[in-house]
Design brief:
Elements (H helix, E strand, L loop, with lengths): L17 E2 L11 E2 L2 H7 L14 H9 L3 H13 L7 H13 L3 H13 L7 H13 L3 H13 L7 H12 L4 H13 L7 H12 L4 H13 L7 H13 L3 H14 L1 H30 L21
Antiparallel strand pairs: 1-2
């Protein structure tokens, strides 16, 4: 039986997550943010983490001399309260200066601030304007959030085709959230022809980047054989990995499946999990190295935990 139609589910942005649940506990759940969650969700998992290494005093001197990267770094310091009192208005002021000089990181973060109404009046259309400026310079976070804006119709007319275009650009850079959202589009048939095999492919790419929601959905796909050949060992392996993140529903689902498959397959799944964990850590290291070539990044954990999911039958 195919999974429920999730055409009403929303794509997730680069931070907090919400879950759209199917009526059957043994079906793939496409995961996304609600419209209200989007305000607080956009872009923070990567862009908010970019902070320059020099001390604040050195940054301020360079920023006041007009250095756009220093202005960006100082803005992020105020946004995060990093060695200075947290001050969204001051963050906006310095980021705006950097963005005026074409700094893509600052442009991308300004989009976040306008979307959230953080340090400036909320303005989805203005958020899209800044996302687009950064996206056109190749910023993957902005490309992902621009795609989400088109998918939700926030600040621009709703356009699933345009959403897919920008999500693919971000996905081509290995952006885990964009990879996940593409899987969500193919799972739901939102803007594309519904294709569970294609959904599984994108979920796998995201899962291998460490995206826990993709890992959860991939485990469900393998458990039910929807879009892929049914493989309970692979399903349990992905549930093991997702459970490590502390996802209690994944823990419960892992226990149910482990009892069902028996100790021999459970041991095989444990060995497979270790292989996958090594792959995920390798991918994260590569991504961090590439990110470090353009900025000093430190990716924080997601703030938003998963909502409850029903257990498999």
């Amino acid at each position: 039986m195919p999974p429920d139609d999730h055409s009403g589910s929303s794509p997730k942005t680069t931070e907090a997550l919400g879950h759209a649940l199917s009526s059957s506990g043994n079906r793939v759940r496409c995961v996304g943010t609600s419209l209200s969650a989007l305000v607080f969700a956009c872009l923070l998992i990567c862009t908010a983490a970019r902070s320059a290494e020099p001390g604040v005093d050195a940054l301020r001197i360079r920023a006041e001399r007009g250095d756009p990267m220093a202005q960006y770094g100082l803005g992020i310091a105020y946004a995060r309260g990093d060695k200075v009192p947290q001050n969204s208005e001051e963050a906006f002021r310095w980021l705006r200066k950097a963005a005026a000089q074409g700094n893509a990181f600052a442009e991308s973060y300004l989009g976040v601030m306008y979307a959230a109404g953080d340090g400036v009046a909320k303005d989805p259309a203005e958020a899209v304007k800044w996302y687009r400026k950064a996206a056109e310079q190749g910023d993957a976070d902005a490309q992902c959030n621009l795609g989400v804006s088109y998918s939700l119709g926030q600040g621009v007319p709703k356009d699933p085709v345009e959403a897919g275009k920008w999500l693919r650009k971000a996905a081509d850079q290995g952006h885990a959230t964009a990879l996940y959202n593409l899987g969500d589009m193919y799972c739901s048939g939102n803007g594309v022809k519904k294709d569970l095999a294609e959904a599984a492919m994108w979920y796998r790419k995201a899962a291998e980047q460490g995206d826990t929601d993709a890992q959860f959905n991939l485990g469900m796909i393998y458990a039910t054989g929807q879009g892929v050949r049914k493989d309970e060992v692979e399903a349990l392996a992905w549930r093991n990995i997702c459970a490590i993140s502390g996802d209690q529903e994944a823990v419960r689902n892992r226990e149910i499946l482990a009892r069902r498959v028996g100790p021999k397959k459970a041991l095989l799944a444990q060995r497979r999990s270790m292989e996958l964990i090594k792959l995920i850590e390798h991918n994260k290291a590569v991504h961090a190295a590439l990110a470090g070539a353009t900025s000093s990044d430190a990716t924080p954990p997601k703030d938003g935990g998963p909502a409850s999911r029903t257990s498999p039958q």
